Fold:
Amino acid sequence: MTARTLALALVLAAPLPAFAAKPIFPDVAPPEVFGRVVLDRTSTATRIPAVVFEHWRHRTTFSCRLCHVDVGFAMEANASQISRATNAAGLHCGACHDGKKVIREKVIFSACSATGPVTPACARCHVGSLGPEHRAEYFALVRKLPVYAGGYVDWEAAEAAGQVRPLDFVEGVSIARAPLKLDRDVPLETRGTWLGAVTFSHKKHATWNGCELCHPDIFPSTRSGQVKFDMAAIREGRSCGACHRTVAFPLAHCQRCHAGRSFGMR
Structure:
C-alpha cells in the first residue's frame, strides 16, 4: 500500500464530525402527504377523530394569503385555537364552510356547529387517518397538473398555465386592497456552495402569498442585506423554511431555487 493510498484510507475510516453526521435535509413526506396538517388540539380528548387538513385540496382553489391573512390561520401548529365555537361563529374553517357561501358555483359545505351531537357529516373532516383511497385521489388530481421529481405538484407552473386559479378574495371574508406594486426580482448570492445563486421573484410569490404573509413576521425588513439567513436557518423552518420546509415544495429539490448552475462538483 502506497503512502497516498494509506492516507486516503485513514481519511475515509475517520469518524464524521458532528455537523456532517446530521442530515442535510429534513425527512420529506410522500407527495400525497406533503403539507398535511393534523388538527387534534381537542378532538381525540373528546373521543372524536382528528381533522386531517390537506393543503393540496385547498391550493387548487385558494391562495395561501387568503387563508393565512384574511381568514387568519396561524403559521404555527396549535396557534389558531380552532374549535366548534369559532367555526360556528364564522371564523377559521367557518369563514367559508358555512353551508351558504358559493365559491365558483359550488356551495361550500358547513363546518362544525357550536352545539349538538356528532353526526356522520362530521366525518367529512374528522377522518382521523386516511387510507389508500386518499393516495389514489391525490394522483387522480396530479395527472391533470404538471409535476416534478417524485410526483409533487408544480404549483407555480400550474398557475402560470392557468390550470389552477387561486382565489385571493372571498366576499364577506376579504378586505379590498390595492394590488402589489413591487414586481422585482432579488438576486441572492450563495457562498461556500457549488450550487448556483438564487433569484427571488416577488411576482411569483405575490400570486400566492401577497406581501403580508412574509412581511414583517417572517422577513422583518425589506431592505437588501438586512435579513441574514442560510440553509441551516431554512432547515429549521425559519426565513424561506417557514413554507419551503413543509408545504411549498421539499428543500431537497435544490434546483427549484438554485437554478443558476447544474448539479455536479466543480
Observations:
- The chain has a mean pLDDT of 83.
- The radius of gyration is 22 Å.
- Residues 26-176 form a domain with the Cytochrome C3 fold (CATH 3.90.10.10).
